[in-house]
Fold this sequence. Notes:
9 helices, 9 strands, 22% strand
Amino acid sequence: xxxxxxxxxxxxxxxxxxxxxxxxxxxxxxxxxxxxxxxxxxxxxxxxxxxxxxxxxxxxxxxxxxxxxxxxxxxxxxxxxxxxxxxxxxxxxxxxxxxxxxxxxxxxxxxxxxxxxxxxxxxxxxxxxxxxxxxxxxxxxxxxxxxxxxxxxxxxxxxxxxxxxxxxxxxxxxxxxxxxxxxxxxxxxxxxxxxxxxxxxxxxxxxxxxxxxxxxxxxxxxxxxxxxxxxxxxxxxxxxx
Length: 241
């Protein structure tokens, strides 16, 4: 039960993440129905509905029909407005697990976004409503064929100021960079990466699994306390910042 939201910039792979999740949990015993615009991948053991505005098959009309078919899991390509937001709420409150995407600036920003769609704090703060929040971006990956060893670069007598500044920033989150095989992009690159120093992209994601304290803060509208609690789980006590 509950809803898992995925957000991030356009082209960051939100739908791909949802498909990966569905692919991991699908089974013959589980009835999964998706409503998408467009259907980007064909997924077996899943009923996929393609939105067609010309045929009056919208997200809202498709969702109303899907709820009558008693699915176990519903994947909504995107919650776009108050109508789909309200139908998403009804899907969750009727005992379905829902996976969907929404446009927001951060994982916690999803909560504010759904308030814009008309969902109250009491609904968002319900113990059975929110399950997880995920914000993701695609980051460039340095080419493994020409990447430089960062720990060697910073001890070189000709080290550049920008690399020392980068080390300074790292030390705010990593106590000893030498413990990690940190690679630095080669500005000259090589033939393997077409002399860009970059080869491919990888996902960087912020994943929030909702706990009871978060539910309490969400329901009471204590946004700052919610943020401080979330940061404290990974950063320790952030009160001095």
